[in-house]
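Hey,

Quick one before I head out. I ran the complex with flavin mononucleotide overnight. Inputs first:
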Amino acid sequence: MQKPEPIDEQIILDNTKYIESDTDLKGIITGCNDYFAEISKYSREELIGQPHNIVRHPDMPKIAFKILWDRLKKEQNINLAIKNLAKDGRYYWVFTHFDFKRDINTKKVVGYTAYRKTISNKVTDVLLPIYKKLTEIEKTEGMEGSLKYLNNFLDEHDLTIDTLLDDFYKLY
Ligand SMILES: Cc1cc2nc3c(=O)[nH]c(=O)nc-3n(C[C@H](O)[C@H](O)[C@H](O)COP(=O)(O)O)c2cc1C
């Protein structure tokens, strides 16, 4: 599916609602709620069967998704702030929390569910410049460069990736 051209216009979310989606182990969307369709401007039919990067925004650094997938593979939850791209080119920020879907008998993970809520400007104002910097670095130095920058940033601020995410979560 052709990606929309991003425009600098934010979609404001209803803070009483969750944007929910289910995926298989590869991140292919297997289900979603009506609010996801309403906000992303894609119909459920357009969303189901597509990779979740259908709403990936170019301002999001690759390293954020690497950290996400590393966590999911280790069956660890993560609270990640994500800027998403709607079909009309506008963006919306969400705090995303993940759950593991397990086979009833084997208890093995067979997919993931994401729950997303609105995020305060207090968080996005701090986060956007960091994401932008990481995205810039990735253009020339790839993910090796952004990982190095992120590790230096964490060391300088005496943080780990978990305490950094926790701090953002508290701000929210
Ligand atoms: C349950 C679940 C929900 C996801 N939700 C989003 C999302 O809202 N936005 C997004 O850009 N990526 C989301 N992802 C990550 C995508 O699968 C993908 O890794 C990311 O968009 C980067 O795409 P790329 O590796 O093709 O660049 C989600 C993954 C899972 C497993």
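The chain has one domain: 19-171.

Talk tomorrow,
K.
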